[in-house]
């Protein structure tokens, strides 16, 4: 082992440590950003090192233009995408970046497989190599197409409803078995190139098949899972290339993505199997059918709602995705400031899955400079609703749906915020339709509830004006 | 691409230990930081760009070159976009340093 190789191992080691620290520092808001920057620095180090030692020797690769051109295009696209995306569209942005990573892993595996089967025509490839390559190709492909579907659903390009056709699960199972069968053939009988290409195409189809039947409301869990898949694909590629930086980073993300997925499912009180295969949010269920449209919803004017809050002792604000879409977090903070100045106790109740991703509301409210200590997690604040004058719900729906406490609803068993215990409930809502999960919400017809229809931002601005006059 | 038994075993050790580290590290992250965490982990697997660079460096023939070029593009999108978007999210948290947890 020459000195350059020793240095290469040290570069991998340093990069691996910075990646671990990047995730570790995310445990606290005060260190999180530094951690991410440290990870980026480690990444830059390993990328630069690879650039100057492409073949294990110091120098520039013969194909350097591929790296420069590809890197320039990728950097511009990634940078612009990341800088331009509004905070509300964050989940789909993460999905599409994840899909890019999965696609890259699959492509690297493809190049490796094609090269080695051309170099040794008619021979079997070493078993460990071929298994790792095929794993990289299949998992990377599933992650790519799955992420694209998740992006489409979150962005509203594809219906958020679970898309199923008769026998779709049988098709999925058949595709999966075909992929496994071809994989075994490629490893044990003959590394045929046409069959390998079929293997990749079927893997891409598998990603679509697995993601389409899942409802839009569950997409964050899917994105987290696909994130974990890409990690595993990267680790498999690291195995193939015998590159420890890829191996460590991929495994780290594979494991952390898996536990994060588990945490997210736990917050909804559902199992991962339920999320992936139950077709949640079909809008079915006897309780659901047609109840809402016919019921009388009590409406309230913004001024009346403002007076109710201004003369209350305690107000709890429950933000949801509606606040994010309307970009209403700024006016919400203004409302909070005005109420606090009048001596009202204002808190925010953050459901673990409010918005499209866990922590989504925290990000937005932090953006609007709402202090952390006013943001309360569900368990912390749920007992306080009974002693609250006004619960102000801004564009949240499923997380305050009392039918979760009863049997027979698709969200049965999901922990919810006890807003129905508050003395008054004011709901800001864009339209009269059901929530993202497609489930009617009996809270809206509760006798204590008053509805203020309209886009959240103008509605909150009207409340602000109302409180100023009150 | 022949790996020795020793190399395979070393890789296996790294794999298993890194999996435990990933599990332990993430178990301690509070809910409110889960979105940045997902995004940050997403950026970390952008290291695949290194793999793309390695295959690009030795790619021969038009098919391999096109596939490698695509791999470098996608990998770079992942790594650059991932870190920048995570930084944007975390920037917001930094304005008021943690008062609780």
Total number of domains of chain A: 2
Strand share of the residues of chain A?
5-15%
Main sheet makeup of chain A = 6 strands, parallel
Chain-averaged pLDDT of chain B: 86
- Detail the poorly predicted runs of chain B: 96-101
The general outline of chain B is flat
Label the structural class of chain B: mainly alpha
Supply Rg of chain A.
26 Å
Chain pair sharing the greatest interface: A-B, 119 and 88 residues
Query: Over the alpha carbons, how many angstroms does the gyration radius of chain B reach?
Result: 18 Å
How much helix is in the residues of chain A? 55-70%
Brief overview:
With 470 residues, chain A is α/β, with parallel strands linked by helices. Chain A contains 17 helices and six strands. By secondary structure, chain B is mostly helical.
Please characterize this protein's 3D structure.
The complex is a heterodimer of chains A (470) and B (101). Chain A folds into two domains: 275 residues, no CATH class; 179 residues, TPP-binding domain (Rossmann fold, 3-Layer(aba) Sandwich). Chain A is 59% helix and 7% strand. In chain A, helix 15 links the parallel strand 2 and strand 3. About 3% of the residues of chain A have low confidence. With 101 residues, chain B is an all-alpha fold. The C terminus of chain B is likely disordered. In chain B, helix 2 packs antiparallel against helix 4 and helix 3 runs antiparallel to helix 4. At the A-B interface, helix 1, helix 2, helix 3, helix 4 and helix 8 of A face helix 1, helix 2, helix 3 and helix 4 of B.
